[in-house]
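Notes to self after the Tuesday call (sharing in case useful).
The group wants a holo model before anyone commits to mutagenesis around the pocket. I volunteered. Ligand is copper (II) ion. Logging inputs and output together so the record is complete.
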Amino acid sequence: MKTTLKIDGMSCEHCVHHVTEALKGVVGVSSARVDLKSKSAEVEHGDSVSLDALRAAVEEAGYEVA
Ligand SMILES: [Cu+2]
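Result:
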């Protein structure tokens, strides 16, 4: 499955890195591509991964899902 998230609060490549690692840390996520310019993340994951889980991971890292 593929989910695209809008992410608020990223201002530099460090933020991109944090969000990428946070998303990859969710069990069931196979890849995460985060883009600073478009403030979005494209996440590939298995069926077991909920939007809530992705949102929680982003928020735990200190950012917000718009
Ligand atoms: Cu930053």
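Two things stood out.
The domain at 2-65 is CATH 3.30.70.100 (Alpha-Beta Plaits).
Residues 11-12, 14-15 surround copper (II) ion (CB under 6 Å).
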